Write the structure tokens for this entry.
Amino acid sequence: MLAVGLVLTGLTTGCGSQGARNTIKLGGNLEMTGGSASYGISSRNGIELALKEQNEKGGVLDKKVELVVADNKSEATEATNAMQKLIPQDRVIGVIGPNLSSAVIASTAVSGAAKTADISPMGTNPQVTVDGLGKVKPYNFRACFIDPFQGTVMAHFALNTPKVKRAAIMIDNSSDYSKGLAQFFKKQFEKGGGEVVAEEVYL
């Protein structure tokens, strides 16, 4: 619901193109099918609940807010296709999703070029909001902690609670989330005096 609130806040300054309509369209670039469908379905359900509550209070600027969902099939390429459908074709005022970091990174080029706000509920990779040169993406946001923070917390916990000094890391090579966490966990774990004795990659 935080993601919905942030996007709806932006609607008050971006409704010019939809000013003559009685409904404001909010896009959902979500994983409705594929390996991460549980993320997309739960996100859709949460968005619909938040919009129902907001619409019962009068909507936004006296207009009802309608969710338009495009299935990105849990794939980065499809997430880009979904963004290209939602913004120029469906003419949404803002987009929530994707959830997967790889999909967000791929699709932000579309939302950024269109100057359309996009917020990811779960995209933790730093490049969701900052490009490879360290420049902030002005139209792309997230509603969660980033990989460096999570990896650091994991390393501190391992070193200080069970007091682990040696660790092995299992990395899902198909997941930017897994690779990002592994990178930052290793960095902080070794910085704290721990030793990573093995790194195993799987698909």
